[in-house]
Amino acid sequence: MSHEFHSLLVFLILGGGFAVVVLATSWLVRPNNPSPEKLCTYECGVDTQGPTWVQFKVSYFLYALVFLVFDVETVFLYPFAVMYKEFGAPALIAMGIFLVVLVIGLWYEWKEGALEWK
């Protein structure tokens, strides 16, 4: 049994070593010539006015995260829609549970006010 894990250990060591070598090589060969123009704060092609560390409302990020979560989860509906006839009734029940969980999550976000743009 331990012989089976030796190949996994070798794979992890080689994979980690490859990542370290690639990152070290890119760090060594990169150009490093910072200038004041490169080090200045840049935002949308316009020089910033006032302090650059402006706090944003967390609700903007929550709104984006909720959109991302529901967008990614709906991607899981496409394989089911394509292979519906081959999956049968158990898969239909599983997809129904999946959709119920999505609707409960959407209801919770709506109830908590995460979908309101204030």
Entry summary:
By secondary structure, the chain is mainly alpha-helical. It is built from 6 helices and no strands.
Characterization of the model:
The protein is an all-alpha fold and about 120 residues long. The protein has a single domain (about 1-110), classed as Up-down Bundle (Methane Monooxygenase Hydroxylase, Chain G, domain 1). It is built from 6 helices and no strands. The termini are far apart. The mean pLDDT is about 80.
Output the keywords:
118 residues; mainly alpha; Methane Monooxygenase Hydroxylase, Chain G, domain 1
Would you spell out the secondary-structure blueprint of this structure?
Elements: H1 2-29, H2 36-39, H3 58-75, H4 77-82, H5 84-87, H6 89-112
